[in-house]
Model the fold of this input.
Amino acid sequence: MADMQRLREARRMTQTDLAKALQRHGLRFHQQTIQRIESGERPIRLDEAFLIAEELGSSIAAMTADKPSLDQKIAEAESRLKEAVGMRDMADATIAKITGELMRLQSMARVVTQREILEVESENLTARRNAAVSEIDMLDAMIKDERDEAKRDELRDLRNARREDVLSIESQIEKMRVDLDNLRRIGI
Done:
């Protein structure tokens, strides 16, 4: 199963994650079992191979090939891109939900100081920045793996947009830090 490790890592699964998934199918696999299979130290039965391929979203034929086909690489890149976009959309939706809840709670509070608001907003922006940085890291890995130049260009554009978001967020965070320092100096 020449591609087993690559496919597992492409799905961001650890050896332990894959072993646990296979345990749900009744196989007595542990992290060490996966490690031995990937290193070629342990042979694999046909029934095990089918379940591993299924968990990795592949087929035995694809996994035993020396090199993935161009179609497989494109499909994997498209899948990772969709996953990245989905994660970004999910992060944006979560941020919007958190921001809405924050605004609701702020309106309900009797006394909320300007300093407290800035601290919460700074934490919110820091979470948004961290999510964008994680997405940039994922996009960098996808760009590195992508063979199709057009797809790499799309990934680069998405990565560059996220970098601009990070710079904008960092600028907002810095402004809030200055405001917080000024409020602390005057005792608020």
Q: What stands out?
A: The mean pLDDT is 87. The longest helix spans residues 70-108. The two ends are 63 Å apart (CA to CA).
